[in-house]
Design a protein that fits this description.
The chain is of the alpha+beta class and about 290 residues long. It contains six helices and 14 strands.
Amino acid sequence: MFYDGEEVEAERNGLLRLSRGRPELLAGDFAVLMEPTGGVVEGGCQGTMRAEIRATGERAHSARSWLGTNAIHEAGRILDVLRAYQPREPDVDGLTYHEGLNAVGISGGVAGNVIPDECVVTVNFRFAPDRSAAEAEAHVREVFAGWDVAVTDQAGGARPGLADPAAASFVTAIGGTPRAKLGWTDVARFDALGVPAVNYGPGDPQLAHRADEHVPLAAITECEARMRGLADRLTSRRALGRRVLEQVQVATCRPPEVSTQVTGHGGAPGGSPAGWRSASLAIPPRGRPPP
């Protein structure tokens, strides 16, 4: 399945729109998100939140700057908070997640000769899946207490879920040691729909969004071969299961007939010997009511 809007704000996510409009198309027993994982299974995903932290000041002419308050200078205190921030590294269901709170944008300024009265620092909080989106928002507001905080986008994470039988079987088939997905993926979307899911695909996740991001062709071929091999084994098992089920159904749905001889008095002319009558009793298949 291919869809658009995976790298933008949550409301534009193509899978989110599909889940709202045609959820039946996403029904399944298990899902694999083709994320770059270095060819190992990565469980769950982090939640993500973007927020604008606003520093305010007072406008003035830059020739008489002492008459105003420079909001860009005030934003330096926001950056100090970010530099001093110590992220958590919690263990969630056996996998270690690494949180992060960072500035990803800054805007301010009116003109080349004006002391600005506003500066906005955009921060991105990547939080472990043991926090809800509401808890993550409360944490960001606590960290930046004293400033105006406006949340512009957020999406909750997903716990690893590797104890699910389907996920456990997939991990066994792929091999290697699972690790936490550091980043948000649509595993969270499937998790919200009640469908177990994991991240698996070619490419080094540590190269994501770098200038030298790339995926070796050999890694793509290897992941494809593993997925095809797994699909072939599942197809063979299902075919065998269908054949066994068909044989059971045939054996179950063939109603045996039991001939019963009942002692009676007096024979019927031209029929059974005197003193006997024959009767046929049909036994319906299990679960089917008699006619």
